[in-house]
Structure formats: C-alpha cells, structure tokens
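Researcher: We're teaching a course module on how sequence relates to structure. For the next exercise, students receive a sequence and then see the predicted structure as tokens, so they can try to spot secondary structure elements on their own. Here is the exercise chain.
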Amino acid sequence: MQIIAMLTMLIDHIGYIFFPGELGWRYIGRIAFPIYCYALVQGHIHTKSRPRYLRRLFLIALIAQVPYNLALDPGGWNVVFTLLLSAIVLVILDKLPSLWLGIPVVLAAIFLMDYFPIDYNAYGLVLVLIFRYARSYWLIAGHFLLNGFYLFYSGWLVQLFSIVPTIFIALTPGIWGFLEKKRLPRWMWWSFYPAHLAVLAAVKILTSREWVTIEWRSLLTL
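Model: And here is the predicted structure for the students to work with:
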C-alpha cells in the first residue's frame, strides 16, 4: 500500500512538472491521494498518541513547504497541511457527544481550506471524512458523489480516476489487508514526501536554469 502510494505520487509529480501536456501521468497519480487519506484515518484510529501524530504531520508539512513551492506550486500550501487539518477535525469530532454537533466544525474547516490555497482544499477533508465514517458500497458512493461535485464545481475531470483505489479498499478487504501488512520503515514512509519534492525541485531548477520565486503573499491570500 505504501509503495503504491509513493510511486503513484512520484509519477504524478514528474508528469506535472516535466510533461504537463501528457495526462497519462496524472491519471496514474490520482491513485495516490485516496491511499494517503485512508492511511491518515488508520493512523488516527490506531496511533498510541494523537498529539504526537499531529505534531509529526505538522513537522513534515513544514519541512515539505519550501520544496513544494519550488517544485509544484509557488503560491500554495502542500498537501500535508490538508491532511493535518483533516486529522485535527477528526480529533475534534471524536471528542463530541454527537456527530451532528460536528457540522459547524466541518463547515468552518471547509471554509478555511477553500479560503487559503491549500492543496486539494476542502476536497481532501471531505474524502478523509468519507474514509472515516463510510463503509463498503457507501464508501464508493460517497467518493463518487464527491468526484462528481468537483467535476462540475472545479472541472476536475482527471480526479474521477481517484475512485479506483477506493473501489479496491471497499470491495477487496482481504487483498487490501494483505497489502497493508507489507510496511516500509517508518522513517521512509514519513520522509518520502518532502524528500522527493526536494529532489524534483533541484532537477527542475537545474534543467530550466531558472529560480522559482515563492509567492508569499498568495500563501496568505493577501
């Protein structure tokens, strides 16, 4: 599972940076994000210390930010911030006596994630919530409806392919459980995102011979 997520994300980013007109790279890359959302939910459920889990996500997000700006988006926040905010929402929802009381929390988080230029914005949060609270066919239906909404709302045609790993997770739990057991060293899993972005940023700068200017005002939506 981890290897699939890492490789498909790497393919996606290589295609985005070096082959922007070839959508095949991006279709393959759509496999990665649902797996990371699923892994986040599993981490939330099974971690021994949620505060430590959140601190780890925050640290990775900070380390990855400049490489992300240089490699992919000069004026956006990287996807680990998306996962971090989603994890915070999960922690808050678990502390409430009823999920219905969490609706204002979710709406506030959606507004925040759509207001700031955060990778995947509110789509990421909603997908995490689907993985947390939906099962089997409802998991597939929720992801399908989410993709359909963003197809019309944002024109995310390529994102439709992201439902593929969700189908496998929902309908083949035995196979997926087997893949989950094949784990990489923790340091490799946590460090891959900032490390591969740093390498891609260096290659991008060396091949284009142009330095990327980080758009700090855009990050704060000023």
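Model: If you want an answer key for the exercise: The CA atoms of residues 30 and 213 lie 27 Å apart. The chain is about 75% helix and 0% strand.
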